[in-house]
Amino acid sequence: MTQKLFNIKQNRHFRSVLRNNLTEPEKILWQRIRSKQLGVKFRRQHGIGKYIVDFYCPEKKLVIELDGDSHYNHDTQAYDRKRDDFMRSQGLQVIRFTNQDIMKKLDAVLEVIHQSIQTPK
């Protein structure tokens, strides 16, 4: 029996809590990528394995992660590398942005996302 990869039942409540408590940068980005505004569907706070990613586009196998201040210490960076390695081992592309990128350079962020969507894998 293969193990379920997406949205495992044990994380359902936590995913819901995260969706209902988005950070301000997550809210801003979500308003610009939701409802197929970039031509593809994104999901927010999507479970992949034991992890919950900020945004996921199943059609393009694209994970978008937003990093706040807590991501700037050694332990968290090591954890993020482990998560990213897992995502890549599942054939997923991961792109990361800082909260400051969203707040100050949103158009550049959207361009990177758009380019990632357009690039054939």
From TrEMBL:
<keyword id="KW-0255">Endonuclease</keyword>
<dbReference type="GO" id="GO:0004519">
    <property type="term" value="F:endonuclease activity"/>
</dbReference>
<dbReference type="InterPro" id="IPR007569">
    <property type="entry name" value="DUF559"/>
</dbReference>
<dbReference type="InterPro" id="IPR011335">
    <property type="entry name" value="Restrct_endonuc-II-like"/>
</dbReference>
<protein>
    <submittedName>
        <fullName>Endonuclease domain-containing protein</fullName>
    </submittedName>
</protein>
<dbReference type="InterPro" id="IPR047216">
    <property type="entry name" value="Endonuclease_DUF559_bact"/>
</dbReference>
<feature type="domain" description="DUF559">
    <location>
        <begin position="13"/>
        <end position="117"/>
    </location>
</feature>
<keyword id="KW-0378">Hydrolase</keyword>
<dbReference type="Pfam" id="PF04480">
    <property type="entry name" value="DUF559"/>
</dbReference>
<keyword id="KW-0540">Nuclease</keyword>
